[in-house]
């Protein structure tokens, strides 16, 4: 892993020499080394204001991957365009979050499972006042989900279902019977993004992470509730008609974000953008 941005006047110590030379010295070939947990956790730390149940505001970040030609998936899944380093960052972002927000269609396509407790994050999460793993919050208007999935039958924390007030009572009953916690986050059929963020914050879940899919991310962008985008650019070309990382109607005025961090490993770029 190499840090490309921000640039400092100090030689970046994220590479190691392939020979006995000094990193960055002409005539030696530097090779990227794998970052440890502490380095990744520091690189992706939430802003201090989002920490703890008393934090003034929740912080919503998205983690997505895209190919060079803009595809967010291949054959309906993100895994084929990912990498080992991307999955380490994926795990780090989950390890830092209070809750992972995901759309129902992504749950179906990706075969979502409960977040697991990781021993290497246990002390960090305990010190931050967090549970052993993030909760999973599924956004669904219809609640048309398979409640026999492990996501509902064996999570460390009850899976949350964000839905609207007009959701079918029989589906709500089925979800609750399966052990899920239904959270009303909309006055009609669907979920209102700003209300969903407030509802999760009201449960003490302020470090928010969404992993999509594209339709959900598009709704969050359109509602102007996204604070940060962690985007992996995969050095692949897929062509086809795969979705972009965000879909839906265009916004009246494009949202402007600023680059705060850029890492690289094996040709993959790991960028971090924040709302300006």
UniProtKB/TrEMBL annotation:
Keywords: NADP, Oxidoreductase. Pathway: Cofactor biosynthesis; riboflavin biosynthesis. Residues 1-18 have a biased composition (Low complexity). Residues 58-260 form the Bacterial bifunctional deaminase-reductase C-terminal domain. The keyword Lipoprotein does not apply. The keyword Cytoplasm does not apply. InterPro entries: DHFR-like_dom_sf (IPR024072), RibDG_C (IPR002734), Riboflavin_Biosynth_HTPR (IPR050765). Residues 1-29 are annotated as: Disordered. This is Dihydrofolate reductase family protein. It comes from Streptomyces tauricus. The lineage of its organism: Bacteria, Bacillati, Actinomycetota, Actinomycetes, Kitasatosporales.
